[in-house]
């Protein structure tokens, strides 16, 4: 029997399997990031970055990220999104967040907050690492980790910006049924 992974992970059986595997627990804060390729599930890390997690959660619940493009995608490094202008210069109307740097490693599937040269300038833009980026440690805030669906992030078209950028179709907290 062949299982369509996208449907499996999105199903109750898939969620139960994730919970049973230890990849996620019932009390974990999870985000569903939907692209045209499928659903990526991100486990938020309030233990590392409570202010960043709170900001991302607020923006997700407000549906801020729906339709926003991946404006900077560098193969082997990361895919960046979260700018409503699509230029890499935009942000939400919420205040910037103070840095919450940690010793957490930037590895494949690590979700970090983008910022300008000013450490306390993070707002709405974030990136997902395609591979290790250890030089970012203690300089950028880690706020999550991909726990399923990284293969869909791998399919995002590259470019700075991509000629025809992929979009976030929908980004919701896992407990949000809208």
Q: Describe it for me?
A:
This is Peptidyl-prolyl cis-trans isomerase. Residues 34-178 form the PPIase cyclophilin-type domain. It is globular and about 35 Å long. It has helices at residues 5-10, 12-21, 50-61, 150-153; strands spanning 30-35, 38-44, 72-74, 78-81, 110-113, 126-129, 142-148, 170-173. The chain contains four helices and eight strands. Residues 1-22 have low confidence and may be disordered. By secondary structure, the protein is of the alpha+beta class. The chain has an eight-stranded antiparallel beta sheet with strand order 3-4-6-5-7-2-1-8. It has one domain: Cyclophilin-like (Cyclophilin). A hairpin with a 3-residue loop joins strand 3 and strand 4.
The dominant shape is globular
Describe the strand arrangement of the main beta sheet, using strand numbers: 3-4-6-5-7-2-1-8
Considering DSSP H and I runs of 4 or more, what fraction of the residues is helical? 10-25%
Q: Supply the number of helical segments.
A: 4
Q: Give the number of DSSP strands.
A: 8
- How many separate structural domains? 1
Rg, nearest Å: 15 Å
Mean pLDDT: 89
Q: At the third CATH level, what is the topology name?
A: Cyclophilin
What would CATH call the class? Mainly Beta
The portion of residues forming beta strands comes to: 15-25%
Structural category: alpha+beta
The SSE order reads: HHEEHEEEEEHE
């Amino acid at each position: 029997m062949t299982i369509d992974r996208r449907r499996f992970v999105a199903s109750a059986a898939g969620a139960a399997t994730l919970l049973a595997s230890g990849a996620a627990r019932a009390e974990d804060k999870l985000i569903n990031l939907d692209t045209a390729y499928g659903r990526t599930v991100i486990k938020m890390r309030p233990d590392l970055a409570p202010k960043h997690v709170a900001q991302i959660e607020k923006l997700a619940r407000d549906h801020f990220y729906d339709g926003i493009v991946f404006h900077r995608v560098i193969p082997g490094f990361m895919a960046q999104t979260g700018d409503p202008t699509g230029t890499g210069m935009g942000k939400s109307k919420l205040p910037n967040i103070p840095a919450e740097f940690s010793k957490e490693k930037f590895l494949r599937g690590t979700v970090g907050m983008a910022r300008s040269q000013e450490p306390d300038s993070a707002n709405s833009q974030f990136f997902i690492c395609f591979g290790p980026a250890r030089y970012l440690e203690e300089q950028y805030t880690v706020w999550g980790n991909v726990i399923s669906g990284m293969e869909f992030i791998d399919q995002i078209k590259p470019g700075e910006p991509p000629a025809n950028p992929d979009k976030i179709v929908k980004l919701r907290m896992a407990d949000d049924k809208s």
